[in-house]
Amino acid sequence: MHTQYIRYLQSMNNANSSNDNAIAESQFSNPFYEKIRVERKIGSYLIQKIKDKSSFIILTGHAGDGKTSLLHQILRQVDAIPAEEQLKEEDIVQNKVNGQPLYYVKDMSELVSDKQKNCIQKGLDTVNTGGSSIIVSNTGPLIEAFKNFYAESALDKDEIEMDILKLMDENSFKEGFIGEISVLVINLALLDNTDIVPLLIDNLLNEELWIDSNTCELGSSCPVYNNYLTLKKHQEQFKRFAINYYRWLADNDKRLTIRQILSHLSYAITGNLQCHKLNIINRQTILFDYHISNLFFGYVGFTENEDALKIKSIAEIQKMKLDEKKLIFDQDLFVKENFDVLVEEVRTITKNTWDYFMRRRLFNTEQLLYEKEPFLIRKAMRRMGILFAEMDEQQADHLFGILYSPIYPKYLSYRKNGMRIRSKRQLKEIVFKALQVLIMGDSSDVYSDSVLYLPLKRDGLNNQNVYLLVGKIDFDSLVVDTEQIENTISDEPIYNIYMKFDRLSQNYLLPLPLLDYFYQIANGSLSTKLNPVLSHGIHRLKAQLYKEYQFTDGEEVIKLLIQTLQGPKIIDIELDPDNNKLYFD
Amino acid sequence: MTLEFFPKYKGYDLQAQNPQIQIYGHRIYKDQTLYEYLLEFLLVFVSPKSEGATDYEKIKSDGFYFNKIEDETKRLHYYPAPKMGLKRFIFFNRSDQEKRFEIDRYALEHHREHLKQTIQIEGSSYDKDFALDILQDLFYGYNAIIGKRSWFAQSLLPLAPEIIFSESIGNKKTRTENLSKEDSFLSIDREFNFSQHMFMARGGEVYYLHVLQGLNKVNNDYRDQLSEKLKEMIMSIPQLSALANYIQDEWEDVVDAPDNEHRFHYLDKTMEVIPKDYENVAHYTVEELHNLLCSELDAFEKVELVGNLLAIQIIRMMTYRSTTVLNLKHRQAWVIDLTKNTQGSIRKKAVQGYQQLEENVFRAIYRVYDEEMAETKKNALQDAAKDTSLLIRKLGKDIGLVIPPTGGTMRMSLNENLVKILVLTLIKPGERLLFTTFLRLCHEHYNIVIGPKEAEQHFEEISYLNDFNENERIFLEILRNCGFLRNLSDATSIVENPFKG
User: Could you give the ipTM of this predicted complex?
Assistant: First the structure.
């Protein structure tokens, strides 16, 4: 049984040639699918919508985001189809929960354009007669299909396109109009799916699936089994690392689809090893080489595995070079050779591997520091440490701070628990300081902590000795806070971090990269780059601040900033046009 | 085909003009620099205007609007204020030494002395001259064009309407020989040539007329909205207005001229004509300008982008005009080469395309040029080239639309700034389009050819569409790197204008 399961896992990643189960449709009939699949909360959410009123739902998203699986889940949950049944191209079924008809299209993108048009019409008809419709489609064909649907109407086709893109981009879970049809567009590509990771890992490590693995002839020499045992023992720690890694990617514009996550995890556990071909000469070596701590990072032992690089999240984790950062347990591992910092299950194989390479070859100091082999060995040791060092909560936060960014552990905590008063003030100080540096540039030191002046200053090199200060923002005008948002994935609350200026109506979200950027800037790093989309956001904010925080006409004082040999200085000019007087201060 | 013009002034003799004016409008001229198109355009916009001559007194408080022309046969006038006192105060001490005439030094001294009387320094130890220098530095820091120019030919960025200056040229002989300290300040200020059209060579007027053409073709709300947004752009800093007014007003106290003194308080300028043909692209012009003005941008950046947009639109006007005058079957394409491949077929097409564009723009001149002209005026053709094809080249290079800056294999390309302009002008703030739709709009508005689809429409037999694929891919990456393109899902790329107010 367990060998079949391992084969099933291996068929889900693209680092080998047999990825039969990488496509959703082939999954439904597989008995293992039933065991590992995660019921998505968004499914129940949509079912509720359908129950409340007839709805026209469109599911779109990246390939691998689970559009078809979600449709399947919904149809099963309303007892419209039995669990193992394959979906048809399109069908009208009975929603047993409310007794209404439910029309579905499995993948509109696969249909010819006339048929697509029909699908939209059928969907519409079903809704008009009190039922509901769910159409799954890729985005490109979806837009074409609707343009086609309206081909003969007077509606502007570009407007149709903009309608769809707007609904997809906002992904607000509210109905909106495409032309004259009211639809609920769910863009799975923009849904946070990271919270699924712990549930997925729990399911993958479900004991039932591994039930007879201890009876296997390889026994404890099997690396896959060893990985399973180690993970099972430290399931929570591994889940924490995995979710934080995937979240980091997601929040830095490198979000993975569920299929990509599954592909990574299944490879990391099994290394695509084939049991019957395993020839174990040295138990320690093979356990270490194919240890999840290496596989998760795309390594076999000390070497990069080229096949593994086909898995997106492995390619990403290698780019980040996490195992080249100086970590808290470096001193223990490399200098004191104290392997007690690692959990028991990995201690011996790690120590033996280290000893084997370091004792057998005598490296001198220079070699140790600069040569490739010791470098690769250290990396492998760190990987083990990253995943399986003995850590309490605080040490883990510290580790994530080093691996990703100092603000990251705080961000994770704010996101999960919201912010306390003290954190709000601390974060507000960071944001305010960063804005001072960004807006006032090199003169930021002349101002106090509590005022942000808005200088009319040109970019780039020019000798502007005097410039106008057109407005100011007080520290108290800014609020940094969190708001709870709807979580369609799990029951855990999620908080968004935002900043709000008292004169701007809009809240500005502070996503992770922006927080990170502000943190770096506030701490004196000027070379930090921000991704261009967010930097437009800052420019726009700046323009709005200049507009809304201008000194008003009532304030007769004109403030200038002059660069003197003694440094920058503020001068006030008061204009009294009635008496023809100009007061300088 | 007769050459029709706009507005249809009564008795206007187009044939009396040089060929480049007849073809491209009165007039677009080589010596006008990029910012001066914008400044002159804004000068027309902010000034009081009238159809036919009128009494300045009646309209002097008007301004900041686009004329709705009632009677095309009447000449359009506009009445900017010369404000020589303010100009001298800001630029004199920082300008070309040779053109700092004694008579102006003398006037400036009086101006400054007078200002000093009104200044009071409290609680600080610096003197009043220093205070005035601060004011001067403040304005001078916002300069737009200085170069090696004389003080009266320099200009500031249009951050406030009071500091948008009209052209004034000081003749050396007049200022050194004809004027003396015995003359009144009024004559010292009036003795400039205000209508030489050297730097403010009517390019901005041409553009203003072009915008009027566009406003006639689009929804009427646009007229007010466009005025409102343009006004917002140049009125956002009231402090500069207040200080500028103060400095100029104090000078007017010194000069003590009667109210409404011509050439001191106001100038009377008339606008000429442009080809009626331009109206066929004018609605694009208005729409693009409007989108850009509605985008929430930093004050300096907005001014810079609008300045660049004007140049692109002028190049479009002229390209378009050449193809209609020459009666070409296809509109002239702008083949944009983004590849780095010097041997590639796109490079070849782009170089050829640009060559053809210049050629067409110049060749259109022959529609009206004849040998007689060569006899009456020396260098008629050379001059025409300077104001047509070479002008496009110069403007194109100034904004990076034509590369390389020097040397051969000239072709069209896009830099980050131009990409930004395309996005911000073709997409309303806060809205988004499919990448493919965006490409189509680039083509519709400017005839820009980047990808295979557009290439196919322009070039009949084309065997290298693959190269255009590569070109399109690079464009997509540029848009992504500039932060305007995102993947929404499924390899569906959208382009958005993120600067919603």
Answer: 0.91
When pLDDT is cut at 50, 70 and 90, the band that residue B219 belongs to is confident
Element containing residue B462 per DSSP (H, E): none
CA distances from B330 to B275, B326, B345, B364 (A): 20, 11, 21, 15
**Integer Cα distance of B368 and B388 in angstroms:** 14
Contacts of A497 (CB under 8 A, 6+ apart): A411, A414, A415, A419, A427, A480, A481, A482, A509, A510, A511, A515
Which of B119, B159, B486 faces A582 most closely, judged by CB atoms? B119
pTM score, whole prediction: 0.92
Testing the interface with A: which of B127, B478, B489 to mutate, by most A Cβ within 10 A? B489
Q: For chains A and B, what is the number of CB pairs under 8 angstroms?
A: 157
Convert the pLDDT of each residue in A439-462 to its tens digit: 987 665 555 678 899 999 887 756
> Is pLDDT above 60 for A22?
no
What is each CA distance from A213 to A149, A183, A335, A346, B83, in whole angstroms?
55, 49, 38, 19, 92
Give the model confidence (pLDDT) of B460-491 as tens digits: 766 778 889 999 999 999 999 999 999 887 67
User: What residues does A582 pair with on adjacent strands?
Assistant: A575, B119
Q: What's the mean pLDDT in A504-516? A: 94
CA distance B311 to chain A (A): 22
- Residue B147 in contact with partner chain A when CB distance is under 8 A: no
Q: Would you call A140 and B494 a contact, using CB atoms and an 8 Å cutoff?
A: no
Nearest-neighbour CA in chain B from A558: distance (Å): 7
The predicted structure's pLDDT at residue A282: 84
- Please state which architecture CATH assigns to domain A38-189: 3-Layer(aba) Sandwich (3.40)
Closest CA to B499 of B293, B222, B227, B310: B293
CB contact under 8 A, B490 and A581: no
The minimal CB distance from A165 to the residues B138, B238, B494 is found for: B494
